[in-house]
Specification:
The complex is a heterodimer of chains A (271) and B (356). Chain A has 271 residues and is mainly α. Chain A contains 12 helices and no strands. In chain A, helix 3 crosses helix 11 (223-232) and helix 8 packs antiparallel against helix 9. The radius of gyration of chain A is 23 Å and the shape is globular. Residues 263-271 of chain A have low confidence and may be disordered. In chain B, 23% of the residues lie in helices and 35% in strands. Chain B has helices at 42-50, 92-101, 107-120, 136-148, 166-183, 194-200, 218-223, 228-233, and strands spanning 4-13, 16-26, 31-35, 57-62, 65-66, 77-80, 154-158, 186-190, 203-208, 211-216, 238-248, 251-255, 261-265, 274-279, 285-288, 298-308, 312-319, 322-329, 341-345, 352-354. In chain B, helix 2 crosses helix 3 (107-120). The longest helix of chain B has 18 residues, at 166-183. The chains are: A mainly alpha (271), B alpha+beta (356). Chains A and B meet through helix 8 and helix 9 of A and strand 6 of B. The complex binds adenosine-5'-diphosphate and magnesium ion. Residues 13, 16, 18, 36, 38-44 of chain B line the site of adenosine-5'-diphosphate (ADP).
Chain lengths: 271, 356
């Protein structure tokens, strides 16, 4: 009976994972298939990756995506970490309200946020007398930062809640100056949370489509936007190739995140 | 080593006075226990000495120097926290070395002193372990070694043993006392375990509502509680309310509600005054039978409950409309049965007049 149950549970979980991974696997498979018409039988070839290497538009979009994601990672992680420390370590008026206000943006559909940002940027740019400034990489970056900040604050905040303030106090009684406390105790203990948050911020930005699409002026694109545009024109396995690269990178990042930061209750740093 | 003097310490949180005029002097090398119900201000006092809390009024001096302007990291105070607060990302040796490291002590000296310190707490051989790989008792020892390695002036301990199970707690009590004696450091120890405070301390202070109710040697405080709170908090006590009906020399006769009379030694109690007398349950002798002639310090009652707890028995005895608690050693006598008549008797010296 027990064995039957075990078998059933395992079968069910395998099914769940198949459901998750099958489309991705099929897509990746066709990136390596020679036929431009997605025809079988499978014939291994790197032709689509070679085509990709010559596709300036996609590469340029990829570079934009990378730059924005990196800038977003630095900005969102720095400000988000500071905000998390402020929330976690200081008492101030209106803290509960401010903290509660972090949640809603995560629940608002990106389409709505994207529209709101577009309208807002148009309005400010016009008010400042530079209507051309409404869209562009800078606007996309601002949008991404706004989007990833709550995630960073949550991830770092969770880590902060996980370790008690008393460690910092203990360090102080042992003669550590505030700077030494920060350097030798707070930073090392917070680091896994900050790294996880940074990877999160990178992923949020790199995968972001809606906001980038809304805020990109004609002629400037990011990778997801460019992929979307190409697909509308009729797609080739080149898209599979770039998607496979993106997925490999994203999943690699998430595996690192998982390594640094175990989701759900359990404390990291127990190893 | 050092003397810590607290004078007129006041700390308010809104309408609550966490410390409400505390005066205490902790003598050089003394082991001092702070006792009191939860919320009475013990932690607040400890954290004020450590420098985490700024007093609203009053001052704290270490060896005569006012330390109110000195930041935590320059006070040179050792502190052991309730859950040890070991750094999870450092090994045992690194934890202990931390206080020396931040003071830029040379590496060779650090190694030597960390070794000595781990020796002192009997933890040699575990240098490379992480805190997570240690038992509660071992973590406690690391915390102690870490706090002592910098040779602080004062050692502060806030309920350090409360997270340990009973057996380990007793073992650590002995260890704590041994280590404290060995290095002779002034130690202030917060506990809510009165037995622990009595066993370990050279002196104790009982806190209530941000004030020191009574301070002194454990024996003195136990024998001569100043008021109802002190008598009731440290150990158990029977409280007898009565009226002075006769004064003769140093003794006064007091009539208690059941009609009998007790004798108290007094300092200037007037005839007719109302007094409150505290009487410890273990001072009362209990004998079967209720027909003895009336006598001073003797009452007749009826057993309401007999509670057996191994080495001793607790009796609840009704006398008139009052209930007396009596402790008796488990001798070779059959326990007194419930509802039987008994005679309770004690000495004049056991009647302690206390403030209400
Ligand atoms: N940071 C604080 N803010 C508000 N009230 C506090 C704070 N710290 C302590 N108190 C209050 O001060 C009183 C004394 O607390 P504490 O010193 O922790 O007591 P103890 O250690 O004896 O249990 C309690 O009533 C507590 O609620
Ligand atoms: Mg406390």
């Amino acid at each position: 009976m027990k064995r039957l149950l075990d078998g059933g549970i395992r079968f069910y979980l395998v099914l769940v994972l198949v459901f998750l991974y099958l489309p991705i696997l099929v897509m990746a498979l066709f990136a390596f298939n020679k036929s431009p018409l997605y025809a079988l039988p499978f014939e291994f070839d790197l032709v689509w990756f070679r085509a990709l290497a010559e596709n300036d538009k996609l590469l340029k979009a990829g570079l934009n995506s990378l730059l924005i994601a990196l800038a977003n990672t630095v900005i969102a992680t720095s400000f988000g970490t500071m905000a998390a420390v402020a929330f976690g370590r200081y008492a101030f008026r209106g803290k509960t309200l401010l903290q509660a206000l972090l949640f809603p943006p995560i629940a608002i559909p990106w389409l709505v946020i994207g529209t709101a940002m577009l309208v807002f940027f148009f309005w400010t740019a016009r008010a400042m007398g530079v209507p051309g400034m409404a869209r562009g990489l800078h606007a996309i970056l601002l949008g991404h930062v706004a989007l990833s900040l709550p995630y960073v604050i949550f991830v770092v905040g969770a880590r902060l809640n996980d370790y008690p303030k008393v460690l910092e106090e203990a360090a102080a009684t042992l003669g550590a100056t505030p700077w030494q406390v920060f350097r030798r105790v707070s930073v090392p203990i917070l680091a896994p949370g900050v790294v996880a948050a940074a990877l999160f911020a990178f992923a949020v930005s790199f995968d972001q489509f809606v906001i980038s699409y809304f805020l990109a002026p004609p002629g400037v694109t990011t990778l997801p936007v460019e992929i979307y545009t190409s697909i509308r024109k009729g797609f080739t396995p080149e898209i599979n190739a770039i998607s496979t690269i993106i997925i490999a990178v994203s999943m690699g990042l998430m595996l690192i995140v998982a390594r640094f930061y175990r989701f759900g209750g359990e404390r990291s740093g127990n190893e | 080593m050092s003397e810590v003097a607290v004078k007129g310490a006041v700390k308010r949180y809104g309408s609550i006075a966490a410390l409400d005029g505390v005066d205490l002097t902790f003598a050089d090398g003394e082991f001092f226990g702070l006792l009191g119900p939860s919320g009475s201000g013990k932690t607040t006092l400890l954290r004020s000495i450590a420098g985490f809390i700024e007093l609203d009024a009053g001052e704290i001096r270490i060896d005569g120097t006012d330390i109110s302007r000195i930041p935590v990291h320059q006070r040179n105070i050792g502190m052991v926290f309730q859950n040890y607060a070991l750094f999870p990302h450092m090994s045992v040796a690194e934890n202990v070395a931390f206080g020396l490291d931040v003071r830029n002590v040379p590496a060779s000296e650090i190694r030597e002193r960390v070794g000595e310190s781990l020796d002192l707490v009997r933890l040699t051989g575990l240098e490379a372990r992480r805190p997570k790989q240690l038992s509660g008792g071992q973590q406690q020892r690391v915390a102690l070694a870490r706090a002592l390695v910098t040779r602080p002036k004062v050692l502060l301990l806030d309920e350090p043993l409360s997270a340990l199970d009973k057996h380990l707690r007793q073992e650590m009590q002995v260890e704590l006392r041994r280590i404290q004696r060995q290095i002779g450091i002034t130690t202030i120890f917060v506990t809510h375990d009165q037995e622990e405070a009595l066993t370990l301390s050279d002196r104790v202070a009982i806190f209530n509502k941000g004030q020191v109710v009574q301070a002194g040697a454990p024996r003195t405080v136990y024998q001569w509680p100043v008021n109802r709170f002190a008598a009731g908090f440290l150990g158990e006590a029977n409280f007898l309310e009565g009226k002075v009906v006769g004064v003769l020399g140093h003794e006064a006769r007091v009539a208690i509600p059941d009609g009998s009379e007790i004798v108290v030694t007094h300092q200037g109690i007037a005839n007719g005054a109302n007094v409150l007398v505290a009487l410890r349950p273990e001072k009362i002798s209990i004998e079967p039978g209720g027909s003895q002639a009336p006598r001073l310090n003797r009452v007749i009652g009826r057993v309401q409950a007999a509670i057996f707890s191994g080495s001793s028995l607790t009796y609840r005895v009704s006398v008139g409309d009052r209930l007396f608690v009596v402790f008796e050693q488990n001798k070779n006598r059959a326990p007194l049965v419930e509802q039987s008549a008994v005679t309770l008797e004690w000495e004049t010296a056991d009647n302690v007049v206390v403030q209400p």
